What we know:
By secondary structure, the chain is an all-alpha fold. It has three domains: about 15-225, no CATH class; about 240-425, no CATH class; about 430-665, no CATH class. About 60% of the residues lie in helices and about 0% in strands. A two-stranded antiparallel sheet has the order 1-2. The longest helix is centred in the last third of the chain and has 36 residues, at about 525-560. The two termini are about 40 Å apart. The relative contact order is 0.07.
Amino acid sequence: MALPDWVTTCLSQPVHYAICELGFEKKDTYDINNILSGNGEVCWQAVTEHVCYLESDQSVDFIKSIRLLGPVCESVNSYFKSLTKEQFVIQYASWFHWTNCTEVFLEVFDVLQSTQATEVALGLMKLTSCLERALGDVYLLKGNDCPFLLRDLLASEQLADIFGQAVMNVLRVFIGSPHGLNLRNVLWHGFASPQEIPAKYCAMLLFLTAGLGQLLQTYLLQNKGVLVHRPYVIFVSLEELDAFPDLNNEILSIAEELVKLSSFVLKIMLPFWIAALTAFKQNRYADSVILLLPQLEVGLRLLFTTTNKCPNRLLTAESSAFYTTFDEMLAKHLDNEEVNQLPVVLEEPAMESDFLWDFLNHQEGPRIRDRLSHGEINLETFPREIANQIVGFAITILCRFSDGDMFSLKEHMVIKPLMNCASCYRSRFHPISRLKKQVLECMKSIHLWPELATMPEEQIQKLKGLEGNDEANTLILMTSEILSQLQHCMPQNCCSSDDPINGVLIERLLVELCDTRICTLYSPRPVLEVVVVLRKMSAQCHQVSQQVLAGAGLRCAQWLNRTLRSRQRHNYGRMLNSIKFLSPVLQLILLLITLELVSVHSVCKKNPSDYQQYLKFLKSVLQYTENLVTYTSPEKNKWDETMELTKKTLIKIRKISDRKLMLVHLAT
């Protein structure tokens, strides 16, 4: 893919005009004292009178409003430049406390004093995400479910009640409306180059945020309210995100060379890439990712428009159409139902699509872009681990979309490990991947069961409730027979005809089956439907295991301390009986889940009637596991019912297995 030097902007003509020209048409000098009181408070009435309305329906006339507000923004920008940092802090810092991220807004003031266009754009992206989060907190003073989209949040009745509709209309001129400047979306989706964002709009939004703080303080005093801030998202299990090795300065230096040569990078966006790598070197991890994510989007948009032969989609859409964003670029089909060619390009290797879905889209993944752009993450504590993965991914994609002249860089000894990691990447947050993880975690829990009955065997035999020992042995035998039937589905090194109920072998089998590569990209609805059922089954099995571990441990301690009443001793005996067969039964169910998973794509191609019968069977096993959770709970302790229910379920599983309506050979 040759670098399109002809691309001088990613803003369509109307959007470019609105952002870069419209607000500069009026040459009047606006007196800052018109909108600023003697004590530094914003005179909102003087600001709101610059917003114009259409005669037809009294909706905001965005074109006229941008034109009229242009000189006001210029005046605010000049005013801020005239202040020292100390003066700004004394006069305005307290008005940013309502945002819960005062330091970010003070940093934006510093940015306005510089001539670095990239820093202004970064400051504006951080400002809009923090402002959106704060406005959401304010919304919750009156509403329940905060709107996900900034557009809907700014148009809400709740915020209009608190700040006034006229004030909200001023904000909508700058952010949140596709008919206005829409600065937040234009930047976060990678459409604007650094030089295309006037600093005066950043200054104006900083000014307006302070003004909102003044209005909110008055509202809270009058209504005796307290603003509660929602907690930030905290990333746990960061090791799950570990795809690339730690990036050192040598790798980053090579990346800086790659950026200048790769066809993935538009030349007008080069300053963003350099700034992102510099921020990572300086341990400013949130800044690095905020700068990089929009550039990954615009680079993929360039690929998308090239491979799908729709060059016009490289530009911002008008207010009447949709942007070409990550969601559409990673979809299977275009809006005209034709096959999207971008995933085809990215499928060699499949890593790019899987990685992007994992980090950006899957609901159980980190959803980095959404959470950063909507202000859900504490920027000061953003984890290096996540930034390392995003930058590492960016470097591999720079290498992939580069020409032969860069061979020496791509083959460099510090770059090759990154490329190797990329080629081995598998989805970690697709529901199929999460199911694999669930199964293995449940098996680890079951492996703790042998440690339960620690009392001497002769004492166990004294317990009443062990009369059902023969029935337990029968259930174990039935489980063993079913496992033997499953031998044809198992890898040879994990089979044991002598002892099919062998926890070590079953665990080895589960690990091997879970290591089977299963296509996760664009899983059809029937596959996802089955996976939902299988995940519920696995979760129920895990809960049963946890309940047995907790309950048996407690009862054993009570037995040894002689604090069990007669009825409790009898019940404890039945529990120990049930544990004998429940362990192999739960392992059998985990095995069934995993076998179904690795063959799920084949099964879901069956005719509708067979598929429905198959799904009905799975749901019946799910019902069994749900009942087990109830029966084995400390409140119920229904061990006789557990035994009877298990017997019925094993009979059903054996019938289905015999008729081959459920299991599919792994080779098919």
